[in-house]
Each structure stands twice: as structure tokens, then as C-alpha cells.
Amino acid sequence: MSKKPLNIGMIGYGFMGRTHSNAYAKVNHFFDLEYQPVLKAICARNGERAQAFADQWGYESVETDWRKLIERDDIDAVDICTPNNLHHEIAIAAAKAGKMILCEKPLAMDVEQGEEMCKAVEEAGVANTVWYNYRRVPAVTLAKQLIDEGKLGKIFHYRAVFLQDWTISEELPQGGEALWRLDAAAAGSGVTGDLLAHCIDTALWLNGGISDVSAMTETFIKERVHSATGEKQKVEIDDACAFLAKFDNGSLATFESTRYARGHKALYTFEINGEHASIAWDLHDLHRLSYFDHRDESTVRGWRSIHVTDGDQPYMGQWWVPGLQIGYEHTFVHQVADFLDNLAKGQPTGPTFRDALETQKVCEAVLTSAKSKSWTSVN
Ligand SMILES: NC(=O)c1ccc[n+]([C@@H]2O[C@H](COP(=O)([O-])OP(=O)(O)OC[C@H]3O[C@@H](n4cnc5c(N)ncnc54)[C@H](O)[C@@H]3O)[C@@H](O)[C@H]2O)c1
């Protein structure tokens, strides 16, 4: 069967530009889909570097102004892989031009922008999704299945951390390429929007809505040289954030994130405790799901480490043979596969912009709570 082409125009060719390009290139080899992504155009400000990226990954053409990319009739879907401060403007323009949108996380710089983006895609009626890719780690999707089947029973606790250690040096500047995450004007916030947003998206998906939060944030290094000016400027992002949360289902949660946890590169873990069973997951061992079931016979009761590589576990039937694991890049392949499959069926692909707005609301409540030193309602 010949496939329907879906012409992709990607904006930004950094870390995420690579993971998404890899996903578009691979998806039809492993998933049987009606649509086939076509790498139509890559856009970045530096034409020479964009051309080198196009040559390496097989993009047919290059643009140096994202507005030109959006105006093109031969682009069906715009993939936004730029720093956070550009998501809003690009997404609104793309929606107005009738393009489908795959947008990197966090959705926006704040809730107000996020609401405008939701309105724009909904009024235009264009397919949209946000790349909260950890939902599509097979072990995390399996956790969702176990929870939805009621295996855990009533849920009491949700515990998530995301720890890194790459900003401890005072010498690190803020702003510019690679270090835009330290510049609030480009990133919006620090670990809250960058790392906790992932933890929050997974949590909302697995355990439902969050009603209230109580947070503290800290900026350990108060001033850094700004790459744009060469001058020392105040650091406006949160270097670390910890918060308590109450879920709508009555469960309690703790979330913590920092870029000052020496020894941890990307330690995203969560644990969920229910009345019958608990589950735990660790990004550093992403193909395993830990599961404890109190209903097991007492003599053999204990934590089991499920190696999520079997054909009847989520997504794994499309890959190798039982026992052989997959990794980080496959989460993006899964999101593209689901997007294309849902497109053929006329269904949305979660997280949609509207789903991601819920995460944005929790992030904003967290930052408000930290500032006001008080419990804050999410809505
Ligand atoms: N889903 C995830 O797990 C995940 C992981 C990392 C980053 N992200 C998100 O992806 C986005 C990009 O992050 P990254 O790590 O790839 O950053 P990056 O710095 O590696 O890449 C950013 C790209 O945007 C381009 N860019 C900047 N301004 C532009 C403009 N005006 N026009 C065109 N291109 C422009 C840069 O040239 C660069 O290619 C961010 O929103 C980030 O939060 C998500």
C-alpha cells in the first residue's frame, strides 16, 4: 500500500531536532501506518549550519526564517524544537496557517500564552501534540495500564524527582546557545518548567488532576555573566524546586528537582503507593518497572523488577524479540507513531495542547506558591 505523505517542517535542529528527525526517519520501518513523514524542510537562523543538518538527516530544503517555513504550501505539519520563548509565537502563526503542530515542552512560558495557543489550534481545527515523551517509555505506559486496571487500588502517595548536576559551576554563563535554559527570558523558568514539567505531565496522566501545591524554590547562584552582553546579570530562574501537592483523588505527593545534585545526570524517578500495590520507575533503568503486590503469597511477596521487553507489553511488539530492550530515542518514535495513527483515525494524540496546559497551570501555581510562601490552588 502506498503511504500518504505528511510533509514536516521542523524549526530548530538542536537536541530535540535530532530526536524528532530520528523518529520521523524510523517510524515507518517499525510501525504499520497509513502516513509517512517526509523531511521537507529544516529551519534555523544560520543557513550554513541548517544545510549541514539537512544533508546529514535528509531534509529536502532549508529555511532561515520560521515565518517563511510556515507560509509554504508544501508543509503539512510544523515541529517546534526551539527554546521555550518561541513556542507561543510560532504555534499561533502555524495554527493560523492551518498547519498541524507538534510542539516541544513546556507548552509555553506561562498559562496565559498556553491558553492562547490552545484557542488557536482549536479554532483552526488542526491536529496538535506536545512532546512529553516519557509517557511513551514502555515501562511508564505499562504503569498507566496497571493503574487503569485498578491493580494498585486506591492511591495514597505519588513521589517524583528529577535530578541533574550540570549548573553547579559559577563560571557557567547564562543565555545564548546551549545555555538558554539558565536565562529566564528564553526559558520562562528553571527546573520547574524544564524538568518538573515532565514529572507533572506523567503524574497528571497516571494519577489525575492536582488541586493544590505548596512549593519552595532556590536560586543558588545569584548572578552569572550573560552570553549576549558579557555582563554579570541577575539569575532569574529557579535552580531547585521542591513542592507538596494534593491530587483530586485524595492522594498526596512530593516533587523535587534540582540541577545541583552532584552525581546525577538525569535521574527521573517516580513511585506510586496504592492500597494493594506499589510501582516505581527510574529513567536510568528505563526498560524496567518495579512492582510490589501485597496480594502475592506472603512467602514469595516482594518487589519484582519487570523487564518490559515482551511483545504483549506496550509498544514492544513492534521492536525486537523478548528480552531485548529499547531506549530513550524510541519514546519519540512512539509519539510519532501514535500521532500518525491517530491522524488516520481522526483522533487527538495526547498530550494535546489542552492537556499540556494543565501541566503549565501546575507549574505556574508552583512558582506562585514559592513566591508567596503559601499553599496555592491550581485553578
Ligand atoms: N521532550 C524532552 O524530553 C525535551 C528534552 C530537551 C529539550 N526539550 C525542549 O525542546 C526545546 C528545544 O530544546 P533543545 O534542548 O533541543 O535546545 P537546543 O538549544 O539544543 O536547540 C534549540 C534550537 O532552536 C534553534 N533556534 C533558536 N532560535 C531560533 C529561531 N529564532 N528560529 C529558528 N531556530 C531557532 C537553535 O538554532 C537550535 O537549533 C525546548 O523547548 C526544550 O524545553 C524537550
Care to describe what's here?
By secondary structure, the chain is an alpha/beta fold. It folds into two domains: 130 residues, 3-Layer(aba) Sandwich (Rossmann fold); 242 residues, Dihydrodipicolinate Reductase, domain 2 (2-Layer Sandwich), CATH 3.30.360. 33% of the residues lie in helices and 25% in strands. The protein is built from ten helices and 17 strands. It has a nine-stranded mixed β-sheet. Strands 3-2-1-4-5-6 form a six-stranded parallel β-sheet, with helices on both faces. Strands 9-10 form a two-stranded antiparallel ribbon. The radius of gyration is 21 Å and the shape is globular. The termini are far apart. Bound molecules: nicotinamide-adenine-dinucleotide. The site of nicotinamide-adenine-dinucleotide has 22 residues, from helix 1.
Averaged pLDDT, please? 98
**Total of domains:** 2
Strand order in the sheet with the most strands:
16-15-14-13-7-12-11-8-17
CATH homologous superfamily grouping of the largest domain: Dihydrodipicolinate Reductase, domain 2
The helix-strand sequence is: EHEHEHEHEHEHEHHEEEEEEEEEHHE
* Oligomeric nature of the chains: single chain
- Helix-strand category: alpha/beta
**Fraction of residues in helix:** 25-40%
Instruction: Give the class-level CATH name of the largest domain.
Output: Alpha Beta
CATH topology of the largest domain: Dihydrodipicolinate Reductase, domain 2
Query: What's the gyration radius in Å?
Result: 21 Å
**Strand segment count:** 17
